[in-house]
Amino acid sequence: MNARPKKSFGQHFLHEKRYIERIVSAISPRPDDFVVEIGPGEGALTLPLLAAAGKLTAIELDTDLIPDLQARAASVGELSIIHSDVLKVDFTALAHRHGVERLRIAGNLPYYISSPILFHCVEHARAIQDMCFMLQKEVVDRMAAEPGSKVYGRLSVMLQLACRVEPLFVVPPGAFRPPPKVDSAVVRLVPLGPDQLPDADPARIHAIVKAAFAQRRKTLGNALKNVMDADAIMSADVDPKARAETLSPQDYVRLACVPAG
Questions:
Q1: What CATH number belongs to 7-195?
Q2: pLDDT on residue 165
Q3: Could you tell me which residue ranges the Ribosomal RNA adenine methylase transferase N-terminal domain spans (predicted)?
Q4: 3-state SS of the chain: helix, strand, coil percent to 5?
């Protein structure tokens, strides 16, 4: 199949065999896994994943791609396609509906909506075993960034508080049709166990992290003035004169544990 990529969907179809094989190997699906693929496109990953797992659920928004994908998958395994915007898919309900404890999620994510998809998946982390995504390399760098890095930010903190982030390898533009203008990278996300999750209100953590990085050039005392005052910041053993990118994810957890006043 050689579908015409649609700019409105941010489509870049993976076609180079060696990278397809590396991604499938990284996912390493087993017959007893419940695999969900986001954005199967022309099926470059779908068919080998389906062959390995025997069954697969794919989420595809582009109706033009679905008939051919179903036809090609018929002789490979049991493919179920959900025609939907992935942000409207309840992964927790999907797992419950199929009687599985946790899903394994994979996909070549559209660049323009990758961060919302990541945050959406994190909301359902308890129903997810792991995630293996291909994204813009710049996004993967941000996901795995350490405090003090120029690309360390809200995405870094929120993902690292919910998952173990493992960058795997870079995929060059030539592996896609049409080639994007930037490098891509594959990353594995493994949700943390209940005993590893922050002992603080997730909404409070999110509010503090969002405020801190919204004005990252300002000191925390100024950036967080509508969320907490300098005394509250100091009570968490954090310097109000520090800037957002210098704090570790656990520093933000301590800030979130300070009673709101």
A1: 3.40.50.150
A2: 98
A3: 19-193
A4: 45, 20, 35
pLDDT tens sequence across 156-205: 999 999 999 999 999 999 998 888 889 999 999 999 999 999 999 999 99
Maximum Cα interatomic distance, the chain, rounded to a whole number of Å:
65
Alpha-carbon distance of 82 to 66, in angstroms, equals 10
The third-level CATH classification (topology) of the domain covering 202-257 is Helicase, Ruva Protein; domain 3 (1.10.8)
Lookup: tokens for 7: 């700019």
Q: Tally Cβ neighbours within 10 Å of residue 84.
A: 11
Question: What tokens does 215 get?
Answer: 């004005």
Annotated binding site for S-adenosyl-L-methionine: 12, 14, 39, 60, 85, 108
User: How many alpha carbons lie under 13 Å from residue 139 in its C-beta half-sphere?
Assistant: 24
pTM: 0.91
Closest CA to 109 of 34, 190, 6, 11: 11
Determine what percent of the chain is predicted with pLDDT higher than 90: 81
In DSSP notation, 225-253 reads TTT--HHHHHHTT--TTSBGGGS-HHHHH
Please list, in sequence order, all residues whose beta carbon lies within 8 angstroms of the beta carbon of residue 37, skipping any fewer than 6 positions away: 45, 46, 49, 56, 57, 58, 59, 105, 106, 107
Please enumerate, by residue number, every residue annotated as part of a binding site.
Answer: 12, 14, 39, 60, 85, 108
